[in-house]
Structure formats: C-alpha cells, structure tokens
Amino acid sequence: MPVLDVVIEPARIRIGPRFALTLHRTLRVPDDGRVYPLPPGLGTFPIRRVRDYRDRVPPSWNCSGGAFVPLYQREALWLGFHGTGWKPNAVKVAIGGVNALTGESDGPALTGEPQNYLVTPLQPWLDGIKTGQGSIRQFVAMPLGQGYTVEAALTGEERHGGIQVTVFEPRPGRFPQTPPRASDAAAGPMRSRSPAMGVGAGGAMRQRVYPDPHGIDAWDPDSFGSVMVHIVDSRRYREITGEEPPPTPVDTAAYTARGLPWFDIYDEGRGDIAPSDRLAGATTIAAVDTERGAGSAEGGSVDIPDPQVKRIAPARAGDGPDRDPGSPPPAP
Hints:
Distance between the termini: 45 Å
Low-confidence stretches: 190-195
Radius of gyration: 19 Å
Order of helices and strands: EEEEEHEEEEEEEEHEEEHHEHHE
Oligomer: single chain
Strand content: 25-35%
Mean pLDDT: 83
Number of helices: 6
Shape: globular
Number of strands: 18
C-alpha cells in the first residue's frame, strides 16, 4: 500500500516530503517527420481534487480519486518534476495504464532493464512518450473511445485514460537525512465531448531521458505514493467546477512568427535510455487522422530560425532550467 502522503494543491501535487508535480500548458508541435526543439511553458494548468466534486464527476473517478485538469482536445502538455538533489526520488509515469518510457502495462515494480522510471531532479521534465534515441513524442490530449490514444494503440482498448504518477523514496541510508546548509529544496523546472480524455502520441521533439546514476537498488519499493490525474475537456471542466478553463493556447506558427524562443538543452554528457520499440510503433494521432481521411488539425510544418532556439544548461542541484518564453505569447 502507498505510504507517502499526496497533497493536491491548486497549481501542484506534492507526493512525500520533497517531490512536487506541475502540469504545464505548451505549444503542440507538428507531426511532420521533423524533430523539433522543446516548446515553451505557457503557464500551469489549474488542478482540482476529485473528492471536492464527487457528486459531479464520473463515478469511476471516485474509486481512483486523485485530481483532474482541463485540456482542449489536441492540446499538449508537459510534466514538471520538482525535487531535491541531496535526496532524489524515482518517478514512474503512465498514460492510460501504459508506462511512458517502456510501453509496457504499468505495474507496481521498478525495473532497471529496461528502465521504467526517471530520477528527479536530474530529470526536470517529461514532454511525451519515449520513442527515439534523444527524442520523444509529445503528450497530446484526445477523447477516449475514438482510438487516438497510446492506450488504444498498445492495448486495443481505452479504459483508463489520464496520467498516473508514482514516486518512490530512496532506501534508508543511501542519501543524507537532512539537507545541506545551502538547501536546494526548491529545485525544479520553469518552462513556464466525452467527459474523459486520454493521451495520444503527437509530434517528435528533442528530449533525453537520463539513465539512473544511482542504480535501481537505491530505491525503496515499499515507500511510495501515487496519484491519478484525470483529464477533462473544457466544456466538462466548466460543468464540474463552474470555473472557466484557461484560454486555448496560441498555435505554433503564430508563436514562432513573433520571434519568441524555443529551447534546447546541453545535456549530451548525461546519456539517454534506450527508446521503446513498443512506443515507437504506436500509432500516432496524425496516422489515425490519415487512416480516416481526416484533415490535419495541427497546421503545417514550422521553420524555426536557429537564433530563436535558446540553448540552456542542465539543471544544477538547486536551479531548474528555464523554459519560460520571457514575454506573453500572442493572443490566439
């Protein structure tokens, strides 16, 4: 049974004494055969607790509990991980019950071969499923029941949806029990009609998933906490909460035309876990659209001038890389 406390706040979810999760709005990159740099963070999604709306949410949510966030159909997001360098955590991410790094059904165990988890704060964010060497395919929200999700591609059914995050503590004695004098406790990133939705595979982006430098024996399999993050469309979010969801983000072409930055990170020395053949072979949203004769809803390719790609250093122990565009994006 989980032993770490899970605290759901309006802008973050805290699991255990040091880890926090944020969910960030971002541009959706085209699925056009190119591998794009990292898009910016355009603010965090509002997070609401299922238990506060138990009489308005789907009954199945009351069994799994957790939180929910509003996304427009085909909107993209990335996950921000906040932790401490002096005592890190192992983190597993699953979408629709499928591990985002291996493509296997998500279970309770950590595995080292293949590595089915990441280490935070070494890994400051995750933007998608691990499909290539040095690259991922973007997390994009899609309705359940229409065959667009990674869950549908790999399992043939869509029962779970949403995103599940499980955080493990290190084994006792592997790391300090108290922070050093100059604490890095705030480390983390700054990139700043179906009622239920899942996650589909979008365009490709440059992003590494770093190998665990501590080894799988560093993590305590019996000391963990888990949270389910359900996804709802904007209409359903309004019905459940009475609140307006954030406005739809600007499209990629308009953002780039304004000269605002994209991001690349100097992290070649940190390595990259092997890509998942299962995830690499999963049907993408664009492929499903093509099979059905549907036109693309994401726009065409975007040429990003090299001077517009801001190159950033990897996170230091107490300082997360900055993916904030630095000025407001243009109105949609």
